[in-house]
Amino acid sequence: MDTKEYIMPYGEKFYQYTAIDCVSKKRKLIGYSTKTAKNAGLFLDRVIREFPFRIKAIVTDNGSEFMREFDLACGINKIKHYWTTPDHPNQNAYVESSHRIDQKEFYDIRYIPDDIDGFNRALAKWEYEYNVIRPHGSIAFLSPENYLKSVRIKSSKVLPM
């Protein structure tokens, strides 16, 4: 999990909170106008509700948004919270890589609305494209949703002994 700062042409900042499953590549994206531990905790609640599996552990950097309320939310939900070594973003490579994709395939080429509601609508469309339509080489050129379906189908074929 991480945040990505987006600076509007007139200087206002929005923060994209990102969660990614390192196996399926499924992501959740939400924009906030502030980068706070409270918002990170609210974001974690959404991720828990929307991911189709139990989250056992989360890796974050040492940003202040991943302290206090966020760390408490992890504890309440029995999620292990691991922090990267300071100044080593490669230790959270999945989310960093996904942010590079966001920059190249979303921020650099699409219209981004200049209000937080419009920003979130644009992020939701991009999240849908990323999770449902876009093929990912690391999961046999499936979308994250199709990968998860294939895993569920395989596991449902296991017969009890």
Labels describing this entry:
Integrase rve super family; RNaseH-like_sf; about 160 residues; Nucleotidyltransferase, domain 5; alpha+beta; two-stranded parallel sheet; 5 helices
Quick structural summary:
The chain is α+β, with helices and mostly antiparallel strands.
CATH superfamily: Ribonuclease H-like superfamily/Ribonuclease H
Q: Which CATH architecture would you pick?
A: 2-Layer Sandwich
Low-confidence parts = 156-161
Structural class: alpha+beta
Largest sheet, strands/sense/barrel: 3 strands, antiparallel
Helix content: 40-55%
* Mean pLDDT across residues: 93
Using the alpha-carbon principal axes, give the shape: globular
Structure write-up:
The chain is of the alpha+beta class and 161 residues long. It has a single domain, classed as 2-Layer Sandwich (Nucleotidyltransferase, domain 5), CATH 3.30.420. It is 43% helix and 17% strand. Helix 1 runs parallel beside helix 2. The longest helix has 18 residues. The C terminus is likely disordered.
Sequence-ordered SSE layout with sheet pairings:
Layout: E1 2-7, E2 13-20, E3 27-32, H1 37-50, E4 57-60, H2 68-76, E5 80-83, H3 93-107, H4 116-133, H5 144-156
Helix pairs in contact: 1-2
